[in-house]
Amino acid sequence: MPGLEDLYREIILDHYRNPRNRGTLDAPPAVRVEGFNPLCGDEIVLYLSISGNTVTDVKVGGQGCSISQSSASLMSAAVKGKTVEQARGLIRTFKSMMSIHEANLDGSEVPPPRGEEALRELGELAALQGVVQFPVRIKCATLSWNALAQGLDEARSA
Amino acid sequence: MSSLDSLDVSAIKSDFPILATQSHGHRLVYLDSASSSQRPRSVIDAMSHYYESTHANVHRGVYAIAEEATAAFEGARAKAAELVGAASAAEVVFTKNVTEAINLVSNSWGRRNLGPGDVVLLTEMEHHANLVPWLMLSAERGFALRYIPIDDQGFLILDELDRLLEGVRLVGVSAMSNVLGTINPIASITSAAHAVGARVLVDAAQLVPHLSVDVASMGADWLGFTGHKMLGPTGIGCLWGRRELLEEMPPWLGGGEMISDVRLDSFSVNEVPWKFEAGTPPIAEAVGLGAAIDYLDALGMDAVRAHEIELTGYALRSLRERHGDDLVIFGPDDPARRGAVISFAYRDIHPHDLSQVLDQSGVCVRAGHHCAKPLMRRLGVAATARASFYIYNDTADVDALSEGLVEAGKLFS
Asked: Is the confidence metric ipTM above 0.85 for this complex?
């Protein structure tokens, strides 16, 4: 049976207490995306500055539980300075890490990355892998990543 | 620990099989009865016995078990009618839950009687079940919605009720808030509403399980309550309505049972209450509800209420003493004016995180918006944690909650 230490890793609590990249950007030119978790009322407001093919800046607003807010903070640190393709790759890897229970919902059949290579690619984000043992919280963890995916799509079509 | 005298809680606990189970290696401390209560063995046994010995469809067969099933089903209706002081069993319509009871009123009476220029008066503390059906019908029929505001203690502000009632055809009001616990003065609201010719629909989902209810002295026109919050099964609720109103209301769902005759070009409807009960009803669930009412009757609703006032008083006192400014409790301070529902915020720990940590000690509390998002906005919070008590809870359960809050505080300090 999973214990609280599997969920509330120190890295997660650190990002919850000291969230990275909090704030806003002028939109436009930045892209502004909102994400809501209707279950618990958590919300994320994500700002993305994209220059050429690079995510040059990321800011995060909103409020919610430790999992949703730390995941957003970890995400912002991970994608800042990355290319759009790299950011999309991270979304895929992260969501497949969370996909044990989501796969049936969205119909995708991406096998979860269990290899060390995938975890290395995720870096600090791997701290969130314990969330899959608490299925109700998966939506908290993926909230900001869904907003990121939407933001990248909107930036491309803008 | 203080002792509570109104109910023998340890004897009651032993009647509930689930309370003998463990969660994460701890005894189960169930503090979410406002969402759904647990069931005593007598309810579970009544349903099993029904399926093992009696089941047949109701109001159809002439063989022995069909007659027994019909008698059991209608017997449960009579018990539900007596529980709320209905003039007759015919005034109780079985529904799926309170949500369906309210949708029945909105789709039947509402669609026929409400239109442009009319107003439906609700309150800021309503559950989504008493908001969304009216928002849906309002979009279709073009009437307006208006809301009775609440004060900072969580009481309805009724000073300007007469002005708010101008043009109102229907008042929809919760008898007890599922978030704040506030018990609303239904009798004075119905009397003011009737003075301007408005009907009153009471959402009594939180009231009927916890104290003695009498629809006549309330003066209500309709009152909804549900089985699973009062020791009964899920899937069965009741709409009580004044008989003359039920008689004039058109049917909502069509099908078998609700008709007296059907031709290829027409039909005529059955008598009340069956004209609102299309299709095979939840028979075993009705039997279970009847057994739940028997269980509550044996305890006595006045003793149930006295126990909950004592326990809520203990919880408010002990939680505040131990946690001081770390704890914010929403809703009325006086246990005599509220139900056994305590919504709270602890430090700045998100309710989801609180609930997750409490779960590790076997303590089940609800975290979220409690299907009352407009009320959450009024309170200025996105979500709250909520502990709710019932007949099987005692001071040790409150103490387990209190201890769990300390643990959560350590983790998120």
From this structure: no
